[in-house]
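the five lines:
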Amino acid sequence: MTFEWIKIPQSLLTLFIVLNYGLLLTALVQKIAARAGRRHGIPIWQNYVDLLKNYGLRTNITHGVMYYLGPVFRLSGGVGLLLFVPTIYGSEMFSNLSFAGDLILALYFIFFGTLGMALGAGESGHPHAAIGVSRGLSQVTAAELPLALAVFSVALQYHTLSVTDIVAAQQGGVAHWTLVTNPLAVVAGMFSFLGSMMRSPFDVVLAPQEIPIGPPTEYHSSYLALMQTNRAIFPVAKMVIYMNLFFGGASSWAEFCLKIFLIYMVSALVGVVFPRFRVEQSIRWFLTWAVPVGVAAILLV
Amino acid sequence: MVRHLAAGLLTIGLALAFAALVLGYQPDAELNRTALYYAENTAKDLGSQNIVTAIVVTYRGLDTLGEVTVLFLAAAIVGLILAPGRGAEGAGRRGAPPPGELLTTGSRMLTPLILITGIYVFVNGHLTPGGGFQGGAILASAALLVLLADPGHRFAHRTIETIEGVSGVAYVAVGLLGLAFAGGFLDNRFLPTGRFGALLSAGAIPVIYTLIGLKVGAEFASILANLTETEERR
Amino acid sequence: MQQDDVVEPRVPVKDELKKRTVKGPDGFEFEVDPIHDYYCDARPEVRPGSYLKIVEDLFNWARSESLWILGFGTGCGAIEMRPLMTPRFDAYRYGIQWRPTPRQANLFVISGYLSVKTLKRVIRSYEQMQNPKYVVGLGSCTVNGGMYWDSYNTIKKLDEYLPVDVYVTGCMPRPEALLAGFEELKRIIRAGKGEGANLYAKNFDWYKANQKRVIHDWDMPDYNW
Amino acid sequence: MITLSLAVGFALVLAGLYGALTNRNILRMIVSFTVADTGVNIVLVAVGWMRGRTAPILDDAVPIAEAAQRIIDPLPQALVLTAIVIGLGVTALMLAYAYRLYSTAGTLDVSKFTELKW
Amino acid sequence: MVSPLFILAIGLGAAFGVGLLDARSRGLAFAITLAGLAAMSAIGAEWLWAFVVDGVQPIMVMTAGAPPPFAINLRMGPAEAALVAIICLTGLLSAIQMREALLRLGRRAMAVLSIAVMALSGIVLTRDVFNLFVFFELVVIATGGLVLLSDDPRATAAGFKYLVVSQVASMLMLIGIVFVYHAGGSLNVDDLIGSPAVAAGGAAGLAFLLLMIALVLETKPFPANGWALDVYEAAHPGFGAIFSAASASAALYAVDKVVGVGGAAFLPMLTAIGLVTFVGANLLALSQTVDRRLLGYSSVAQVGLVLAVIGLRDLLGERYLMVAGGLLVAHAVAKAGLFWLSELVAGRDFAAWAALRRRPILIFAFATFVAMLAGLPPFPGFYAKWELTHALMAQGRPELVAAILVGALFEAGYLFRWFGRALKATPPEGVSDLPVSKVGVVVLTALGGWVLGEVWGAASPYGDVLGATPLLVALAFLALEPLSARIKNTLAIVVLVAAFASGWPHFDPLQLIFAAIVLLGGAVIFVASYAFADGRRTGFYPSAMLMYAGLAMLIVAKDTFGFFAAWEVLTIGSYFLILRGKQSEPHALSYVVFSLGGAFAILAGFALAAETTALFPIAGLKQVAAPFAPWVFVLLAVGFMTKTASIGLHIWLPGAHAEAETDVSPMVSGILLKAGLFGLFMLLMQMGRQSLYGVDLTLVLLWIGAASALLGNLMAVFQEDAKRLLAYSSIGQMGYAVFGLALMNHLGWLMALMFVINHYIYKSSLFLSVGGVYKRTGTREMYRMGGLITLMPLTFFAVLVGIVAMSGVPPLSGFGGRWIFYNAILDTPARLPMVVIFLSGPIAFLYLFRLIHTIFLGQLKDEHRRIREAPIWLIAPQMLYVAFLIGFALFPGLALRKVDAFISRFIPEHALNWDGLTITSAYGYWNPVSIMIVIVVIFVTLLAWLVFLNRRAQMVKQFNIVFAAERPYRPETTHFAWNFFAPYRRALGPLTEPYFERFWQAQTDALHGWAGFARRFYTGDGQVYAFQVVGFVVIVCWAAMGMTP
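prediction for all of em together
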């Protein structure tokens, strides 16, 4: 197999676009939420400033090797996830590195960062970090279930695990979207989406004042900057998957931006409406509401 | 009460089985082939007048050897059981009144007669009813008489054991002689069968019966002695 | 002020912090000195900014526009900080937000009087923040003790113990004053004068001596990384 | 006649067994067994008995030639001899055991010897 | 040829002759007794040799010079010779064991012993019913005497009870005999067999029934056997051996001899009594704690089994002798050996048997006897069991097979519990010398057992287990025991590698993969054993090699017999291995009980499949016809799933794996579990889909696999013990593999194979890592550890790679497994089990993270501050595994392509498409090399950048954490580790309860409770025993009269 070196700059371009979009998007959503509360909210560029500041801190400490590797794993996970999935349908340029693997790869790669982050947080030796990890892992394992079910419902529906093929099957109007053709899977998938966005009601993992923001308690300066970068990329990368699976994918960057924004707004809306769940409540919620929907999606496809 | 009831029930259960046996019993009109063989061939082959004796000593000699062994075993084990508790010699006699003159003399007079009777019975076993066991038992009754008359009497265990052992070994040896010189183990015909009905006839049957008689007598005596001596001590 | 610089703690050290003999799984016995073995005892260093002034200016601008306040209310003034988050004052629009952990915060607001007991915690938290870091003294008590000027257990002058960038006086100052103080701090930072952390490192011995003079049960390493 | 003796024999057997099952006293049990033994022996002899015949001894009363018609079955008689002796041996042994048991435990109640169980 | 009569004559002569001696010359008397017994044994052995080797015809020995029906005659044939030899040898050896007692009691006792042996021989030899009675009475009386040899004061009462019962039996026998004589006109067995009167039933039949019952009573039928148990418990063990081995053999032979008279109508009665005895006695034995009484129960049970076999003689046809003989011989040798062993043990509880540990050879003997009793290869009982089940199945008597196997399982249960206790208890204080002569007797007996195993093997038409090279090699390690462990370890590695090299060209791809894991993988794990190779490490190498031998034989087995024998061999080997752990006794027990239960299921399955007793090739499973096929499938699958620890059958695994030694855990986890998978592979390849009552059995398997995966993963999450965690994870992993197999599609099988390889690697690696940590920290409780990363970096690295691989996260090899897995399940119509297995997937992250976090991250504890990295011998294999994980992740095709092609032979559709480096299925695609490159590039870039940014970072220590302005005081209270996933447990609530453990616990409790309750039936009252005997007689009488006309 010959590797097309042009893939590298193309991927980096995708990465660049998504990074900026992600930084702006999170700020925008925060701003919208602030406006809903009659506040001005943060400046739209605030994320850039924070990022810059964190990179610019003069001292930092380290707890050990895994402490280093934690953020690296995390960001690798985000970047990798983004690059293993085609971003823009029909565009060879923005199909990224999706030749390496299909949907399964993406699904499992989600855990790459989670695992690494958990390890880094563990190395810091902070009990709150460990508590946060315990909560986070417990919750994410429950939240992943409906997604896995939904994904397989979709894969069964389209008889393929290739993201590109799934998107291709949804072309030709809203009526062909999975949202319409397989609504149960979409509902299950979106339930899972809510759980994985670390927003209320599923944000007990970070619980800022109880266990000072959980796993990243000890992280700061450039470590934190790396993680902030990831916080811009990773949700978008995940949403790309949702978009591709359920909402017909995107054939242009404009469509991409719009759809991602709307998908993000779902979790933002839910987040401002509902109060926080405890971990066992959220796990039970996923098991009693989301999973049955997913099962139904699989059985009825 | 429950025990009696259960025992009664079980007994009845068994009784029903036995009743089936009794009711199903048909007496033979003729001798069956085994008995017929004995009736027809005993005299001719073994030269014994008493068919039962012939069967006991020869045809079913192995049974009899076993029987003697049973007694030997019983004697040995009784000795074994009672041996650990046996006190020192002469420790007994406590409280037992001394035998009277009449008793002593009477038993002394009777003993030889009993012995002779016993010997007669087993020596003539092949001719008349009786035999080694009966004779042996009579011999032992002499010992019993002595003990009854004088509970403190002590038998020479060594002698008894020697008689017991020698007669036992001799019995086995006679059996082996049969194996070597006649038709098989315990075959009596390695000695001449002699004249039918005479004392010295029927081959080795009298010899065997004598040995049996001695052995049985010795063993009974030994058991009796062991039991009495233990009794003494109490 | 006492004349002798007593460094030795005058209160007995807690049992957990005393040296102890421990037996390893293989039966080997050795001594554990918690203060030394469990804490890093390096001293802080002065860390200058970038070589390039333009880069440093950029960073200073970013620092000024991204003030992350440590969520640690040391005294009564903490109550004045809460309204800043409300729609009325909305400090977020100035890039100000609260962080629950000193690792991620770079602004420490000493909100009001500071008892000696709290000072120890304040020092620990301050030292756990990363360079550059800023201190705002809120209320008169941080300036001269205020109404607690003759109290036996509050400190009088905050800047003897920590390098203070801005004082906001009043008892208590209104949130508006606090916002004004933050704006002032931003100006200081942008001007490249918010070097409290380096100051602290440079005059480390002096600060430590001052701190230990009032904190009698000093049972921690000199610098809390 | 023969049924009667068989019945008597079996009755003794059953009586002996009943006695052995209901009497706690070891000596009584032993006696019961001897009763039962006797019953068995009677049964044994009875089985060999035949109407109108005589003992299997070939003396003047029973010529050899007529033996087959004149004598009863000799085999059970031989068997019963053995059985009697064996029964005797066992009885002696049991008596010795009874003695030993009494001397160790001071009782002859069979239900007291239950150290070994389950 | 010496006439067999001399056996009797010598016995009597010695007895009478000894009486002639002076009471004090006891030594001479003892010498004479021994000489007599030796001569009797010699005659028996000579005849046996003549029959077996020279092919002499059986002879009839006449006495009294008259032909048989009229005079007593004896028969000497092969069976008689064998039994007489056993009886006399038992007598001889027991005499040696009872030396002190005999010398103390004097010549009378010796005479009694001689007579007892003589009479037992007489029972065997005689062909006359009444003579049989005489010999029986001799035995009864002699027993009454020999019981008194015991030091135990309770023996007298036991002897009396025995006499009471014997009285009843002898009366019945006499009555029976005389009526039979009346009906048949003869006392000769051979003569009576021809006589129609008895077989016709009626009064004669009833008489014969009484005779039979009396004879059966001598075999101590359940429940009329309390007296026998008391005798076993109280008697001198030397006599116990005679009572168990010799008396029982003689009684059984008497039954066998006489039952022909009554004809076939009486056989079912024997079978019924025998089986009830076998199952009942074994059940009651479960609650026994006194060794000799336990042996008594076991004897009763074994004899019952042989009795049942006698009842089945017509079914067994010409194999009858081998079956009955095999069972009887195994019982006799083992039971005699065990009784003799009990002489060497001071206490009467199981723990006292720990005294044997001072002489490893005695442990070897003990193991031999237990294995013989349990019917394990290569002992005669194994062949007998095999033939018996086959014959019964062939005759359509599965209910009998079930009863026999259930009873055998009970028996194995208590035997192995006893063995385990003996091996793991602390030896009692106060070393008393074990006399050489007594030890010698025991060892000789054990060796005799092996010889008999070879005899039965040679005679078996199926094959000789002892002739298998792997087994011989493993046994050779027994001989090597005196060598130092390092040498043995090296030898073991060499042997395994050589075995693989020599077998290499003959394997098909499937076998190749399993062989590579077993042999090469085993060799790699042995490298770790160097870390423990101080001294001799007695017992480890024979056990391990036994397991490997079994596995090697399993892989190459061609027929069901070879397969089953290998299965049993590996079970024993692994049992011994597991038992070596410090606390592993209860777990080893449940392992062996489950394994044997599974093995019995397999046995029954094979027997059902074979139909005729012919040698049945494994490939023949394909042709099994319709009504049986699903049952065969079910039985075999259940059997195999005990090894894969599928849900419900899993409870042995966590403890067994967790408590095993450090280098044993990977052996039993990484390698042993694969035996079950291999079996399932074999099963599914041969039999394919089966359905029972309309249920697709593969669907059931699918559910089981999915449920196991869920359960294993879920339980692993809540473990505090690192090895238990790994063990539960194995259950989950095996569940995946079973699931994959049961998918019955191409990719499912491929995925199962991938799991086979992967699971071996990462589980072995993780067990070694955890073992290394355990070695250093002395604990397996994870929350007691923490922060070991800096002290044990290599171990940490191995664990990290291991868990990344295991969780299936790209880029390591676990992902390949998952990818194939998901592609495979897309092909299946069974969606619900698929959902279940989805549920279990992410849970793995929880426990894997827990494993690495709690041990290596977090707070280092005081006492661990000075520990070192694990020994190099433990690290080396882990690094090898790491390298392999990465290599396998990059190039899975190296192993899988061939297998892919191989599977295509069975399921051609949906094979993978190996296009260059990309692997394509019907649904998706996957390019391992690209994935690896992409991830590594991203990772390294980011890492380099971060390292650059943090070039001046201050390294801090463990308490330098923000702690809400406070600070931690002790690492213990700062390490968040215990009950790590508490919220998860709260959320799942009842799902996390160990239902299966409770279920099996309830079963065993119920069994023990039953046994404990039911055995109160044996009140110890002689009269009650008499009641029971009479009751038994009455019931059997009436039952039999109801059955026969």
